[in-house]
Design brief:
The relative contact order is 0.11. The chain has 3 domains: about 5-45; about 65-130, Roll (SH3 type barrels), CATH 2.30.30; about 130-190, SH3 Domains (SH3 type barrels). With about 200 residues, the chain is an alpha+beta fold. It has helices at about 5-25, 30-45; strands spanning about 50, 55, 65-70, 75-80, 90-95, 100-105, 110, 120, 125, 130-135, 140, 150-155, 160-165, 170-175, 180-185, 185-190. It has a 5-stranded antiparallel sheet, with no helix packed on it. It has a 5-stranded antiparallel sheet with strand order 15-14-13-10-16, with no helix packed on it. The chain has a two-stranded antiparallel ribbon with strand order 1-2.
Length: about 200
């Protein structure tokens, strides 16, 4: 039996269990709130679990949750739920769009973007390569991670940049042939306490 067959059988088994539970609840006049809670526990996406090192990790990948990723594909859809049968809520264009993984379910990742919108994307659309988006009206790309420092160039709001490294207050980013240090507070896609 292949993995696809096993997945389909498991999916049908879960559906059968849910159907039997719902039928029994109706026949025996069971509290429907309890049935909905039990059904949600079986059918809902997996919650992250804490591990010994104190880092919360996803049950599917073992990677930290939340974590930052980026769009690998030139076009990707954020859906209402984990599967192609769920409605598309948002469309992202262009590789490098930074996203934050906040949940996992099979091959799907629940993501949040810089505006706070959340949805589900297939893992094949995402990359571990780190990018950020400029959230300030403009961000000066400084030659050194300090003020005062010479300004090499300026990145405008909504510019997507590759994340090179970070210290406690500054991150070095690059946009095409331009690179420099920006304040963490001027970008989204890196945590305030993150050092890279």
């Amino acid at each position: 039996m292949g993995m696809k067959d096993l997945f389909l059988r498991t999916r049908w088994a879960v559906a059968a269990v849910l159907a039997v539970a719902l039928t029994a609840a109706i026949i025996f006049n069971v509290d429907m709130a309890a049935v909905r809670t039990a059904m949600g526990a079986i059918a809902s996406p997996s919650e992250p679990e804490a591990v010994d090192d104190g880092i919360v990790r996803g049950r599917i990948t073992g990677f930290p949750v939340p974590r930052y990723v980026s769009m690998k594909a030139g076009l990707g859809w954020s859906r209402r739920g984990p599967g192609t049968d769920h409605r598309v809520d948002y469309e992202y264009t262009g590789p490098g769009v930074p996203l934050q993984v906040i949940g996992e379910f099979n091959n799907w990742r629940q993501v949040r973007d810089a505006t706070g919108r959340e949805g589900w994307m297939h893992h094949s659309l995402l990359s571990g390569e780190r990018f950020v988006i400029v959230t300030a009206e403009s961000a000066s790309l400084m030659r050194r991670p300090e003020e005062p420092s010479a300004v090499g160039s300026v990145a405008e709001k909504h510019v997507i940049a590759k994340l090179d490294r970070c210290n406690p207050d500054w991150c070095r980013i690059s946009v095409g042939r331009f690179a420099g240090w920006v304040r963490k507070s001027d970008i989204w896609g890196v945590d305030a306490d993150e050092i890279l």
